[in-house]
Amino acid sequence: MSIRLRLVLSYVAMLLVPLVLSVLAVILISIATLGNLKSVFQVDFSQGNPIKRVVDQELEIVAYMKAKAEVEPDIFLEESFVRDLEERLHKINMGLIIRKDREITYVSPYLKQAEAGDTSKLPNFGTSSGKFQRNQGSLWITRQQDFIFSDKSKGSVFIFLDGSTFQKYLHQFSKSVIFTFIAILVVTNGVLTYFVSRSIIRPLRALKRATEEIKDGNLDFEVVPQSDDEIGELSIAFEEMRRKLKQSVEIQLQYEENRKELISNISHDLKTPVTAIKGYVEGIMDGVTNSPDKLDRYVRTIYNKAADLDRLIDELFLFSKLDLGKVPFQFEAVDIGQYVLDCAQELQFDMEKKGVHFVLNELPQTPLFVTADREKLKRVLLNVIENAMKYSDETNCAIRLEVKEFDGNAVIQIEDNGQGISEEALPHIFDRFYRADPSRNTSTGGSGLGLAIAKQIVQEHGGRIGATSRIGEGTTVYMVLPLTKQEEHAQ
């Protein structure tokens, strides 16, 4: 669930939950208040609406008084009749006032005890509106019945309701409702805020801890997403960043190790021919070359060592430029079968002079076009073939070249019958400055950059290079180049 949806739902819950709980609380408080009213009104509350029953009893008494006023108006001056009305009204917490002209003939006892006040403020004869009227204090006039006594004097009967009881319970009811609503609102908002904020704060604290661990250099501290919302997505992105950062640091450390190894290897490979040149030059200076033949041999050795040194520097410079991506490539569509045939015909004469039996297997029947740089790809073929010749028997060296199509790619295979490569060394032969010969003899092992350069060039072509080998049987180096699509070739 997203944070936005969670917040919206929490806002809705903060409105609806207090409202629903408040309604329930009002109902419960009303029931409690209604129960307290049982002590005020002597009415059967177990049947029907108690308020309606109180009103019905009042109407019944009023109808009874109205009938008596029309037939026997003077009966309102009799004490027994008035006492009977008083008792019936007292059951529903009501009182009675009887007035004859301006004289009050009867007042309910509880009204006197409550100090009902100035009865002269009672409504005048014939002013009844049929509605509840407020007299004064807590007394409310519910009914006014006017009639004429037998002596033609004006009479009025007032039914009063003691509102103090209702005011007391209404005050308690209002106060309970307000306090309950505030409590419900505070508790509901507090609980919802706690749970919503916890679902946000806890993942943020986990991310903060992860940043502190990474700041301290601990890149192994894994961040586990705790939700599927935006913070969960942030945690996933943070974890991905941590992994990439760890991988980058590991690669950087590996690069640093490779750099140290590269410097060491360069120092060794450059020092070897320089030391040899220095030794032969010192021999000439010391007069060791006391014959023209010996001098010629020394000079040729110096020249060969200088040539090896120059070739090593060239290969090192080329590899560095390839590694930095600063070597320009002139790519074009090339029929790889015809291209390999041309290269083989160009190399065949030189290899026959060196006693190498070179065989070009049958080429594909249909053209196989690849996007390649002709010069750079030729450099790959030369490096692989030269490497094959160095590790083969000079008297029985055979190299077979083959081109075929496989799974949408053009595959070039160069197979020799040399001494083979061990399983331990095979995965490293394309590493820079790696030689299977631990003595690092340049006469047999080369500079250690030839196959590394070949790998870089093939990768720049979008392909890959690999090798298979068996000790004593030979080695096969294969290069896989993606074929050019027909529409690209047509263009």
Automatic annotation (TrEMBL):
Its EC number is 2.7.13.3. One of its GO terms (molecular function) is phosphorelay sensor kinase activity. It is a multi-pass membrane protein. Residues 198-250 form the HAMP domain. Residues 265-485 form the Histidine kinase domain. Its main location: membrane. This is histidine kinase. It comes from Paenibacillus sp. SYP-B3998. The lineage of its organism: Bacteria, Bacillati, Bacillota, Bacilli, Bacillales.
